[in-house]
Amino acid sequence: LALVMNQNTGIHLILLIFTDTNLIYFLLGTSYHGGYSHEAIVYALTDCGMRHIDTAKRYGCEENLGKAIKESGLPRSDVWITNKLWHADYGYKSAKAACLKSCSLMGVQYFDLYLMHWPEAQQPSCSNREMRAETWRSLEELYEEGICRSIGVSNFLIHHLEQLKEDCSVVPHVNQVEYHPFQQPNDLIEYCRKEGIVFEGYSPLAKGQVFKNPIVQQIAEKHKRTQAQICIRWSIQNGVVTIPKSVKKNRIWENCQVFGFQLDEADMVALGGLHDGRHVSWDPTNVH
Ligand SMILES: NC(=O)c1ccc[n+]([C@@H]2O[C@H](COP(=O)([O-])OP(=O)(O)OC[C@H]3O[C@@H](n4cnc5c(N)ncnc54)[C@H](OP(=O)(O)O)[C@@H]3O)[C@@H](O)[C@H]2O)c1
Question: For residue 228, what are the domain limits?
Answer without folding.
Answer: 2-286
